[in-house]
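Table S2 (continued). Query chain:
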Amino acid sequence: MKSVLITGGSGSFGQAFTERVLRDQSVERVAILSRGEHAQAEMANRVSDRRLRFFIGDVRDRDRLRRAFDGIDVVVHAAALKRIEVGHYNPTEMVKTNIGGAENVVEAAMDAGVKRVVALSTDKAWQPVSPYGQTKALAESIFLNAYQGRTKFSVTRYGNVAGSNGSVIPKWREILKTSNTVPVTDPEVTRFYMTMDEAVDLVLSTIEDMPATLAIPTLPAYRLGDLAEAMGARMNIIGLPDYEKRHEGMCDGNTSDKARRMSVDELRGILNEDGLHRSGPNGFDKAAWKGPFALEWPHGHCGGPYTVQAHRGC
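Corresponding output:
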């Protein structure tokens, strides 16, 4: 991997992925393509490396993608509209970015001669009930059914990353600065737990092992009620909206209600380690580069070991 471009690269994942990849001195260029000029400026000020390049652009613009992809070996497609409540009220905008953007990335990558493309997906794409999940499910199909010729395509599917922008832990931490109560849809809701390091590991291993079609991790999960208790918060139960599921899933047999359940003490210990969510400027810890990975590997997880496998037809 000599040159890599990350769409949506000024977001939480893109910044973590960029910092990890720049540790590999064999990488000659890392390009960030995103709409956020302010986020790009902040990232440029924080990450000083002559190999880092920035492009303002939107995945809705195929011509811009073709130009940006010129000379790129690997594209990591992280750009998406991700807010589930935003998608509920703005489904057509979700379609334009998450589905139309996926089409544009595929076509531009093939036109530019990109060697490998890895698209980031979500557990909400499995048996989706929201416009966000539905658009990501269709995006998965676009990538997985693209012509696997000179350009290879793969997809990674996983849940929310702990400590990432807009996720529950930083949101509740901000609320708890001025209140002792956090809004909880349903304390029995379960969600998968994954760190940013593990998300980066998953994408790097998928790049190395392509054409693995669909990479899905097996992760531990937690109850929202247990997370609130671990954070020392009282709960204001607001009810689960129609566009959210009580339990998420990756594929058959891999659902958050059946996954290994993280205890309150375990969650409290992780949250108190501050290194996980606060050490880095971007709100999460960063591990050292470990080199290439096998398609299936045991991985040390703060919530216990997990395994990543290639799946077809989940």
